[in-house]
Amino acid sequence: MSSLRSLRPLISCRRFSQPLIKRLALPNLSEARTTSSWMTRWNSTVTQDPMTGELTSLPDIEVSRLEITETNSPKQPPASSSLVFGHTFTDHMLAIPWSAVSGWGAPKIRPYAPLALAPSATVFHYAQALFEGLKAYRDSTGRITLFRPDMNMKRMNTSAARVALPTFNGDAVIELVKRLIRLDKHWIPDLPGYSLYIRPTLIGTQAALGIAPPSEALLFVICSPVGPYYPQGFKPVALYATTEYTRAAPGGIGAYKLAANYAPGVVAQKEAAKKGYVQNLWLHGPEHYITEVGTMNAFLALKHPDGVTELVCPPLDGLILPGVTRDSVLNLARDHASGKTLLEGLPESGKFVVNERPVTMGEVKQAAEDGRLVEFFGTGTAAVISPVNRIGYLGEDIQIPTGPDGMGPVSRPIWKQLVGIQVGSIPSPWSVVV
Quick check: keyword Transferase in the entry (predicted)? Predict the structure, then answer.
């Protein structure tokens, strides 16, 4: 009991101290591009000889070992207008096995088909599973690009390390994904707003019961053609600021894209729907700090008495997933605020600031009552930006301003710039040619 008492200051419901935030927070992914290599590689390629104790290197993923088996029964891609997100899959998939004895095996691109797994596979019993989501776009010239795939690989490796799954050479996986996309490129609809959604997944496959790092794993990638998230134009959503459920806790797994983070949110989402809301707004602690919007990152814009517009995003304090779209929005907004790359429609750089800081529902409610709440929106790969028009909180609705097109004055210019980069109409190093 004394040890539990000693933990009470650490797990207090008060917002974390700055030193604790630094210990719990996942490194900023934009900074990770130039920091140490642990973001792309961990220790899965190193093993210790049981006899000599000598550290030896296991094979990592090698593109040169790729084996391709094309399908004998290619499917006809469906009409673009009939696509439902995540329900249609291309002809081929990528699969790469791993074992603790031999490391990463030969990558194989093969026909899309069910996986053969034992009922005792660890993924079924201990949630040893993680995934990523990114998109491939076709521009007006037919060129196909990926949007910031290095960020997804770095985050995927971080998630793998958190649950003792093997990590890997992210650059090699990007190259293999490119090969897969080239083979199935005819599945990318040649229409504005359409893309190919790519789902890299890593699971523990060892056929054994027992909570331990798995001795076998499988990394696989499947692809799905998708249409625009808002085919009829932006439709603002209503959120329920849930005080009944919690998405993440200090020292937990909220900052990692693990499968275990998602299933528990379904019941909370169903409860929100019963109350007339589209999705949850996740809160933390008795102060009701804002963390995430459903499965998206949260942003809000505030107007201050001095005329300055502040774009606010909750910080990466260990509870929040470091979204690629989140990072992209912050980078574009900061470039505008600094005068580096101005975005038409945003307040002039001297009247616009960007902050990652804690924000409570109390602050949002007060800002709305004072007429200073400019807008509220979520960001993610699927929707890019999702505007919010009301938040249900403690028995009342907080109304959020939106423009005639459903968006707000801050999100609209950022969305326009971001989508322009994604589809190739605006040149950017974030676009990686397939």
Answer: yes
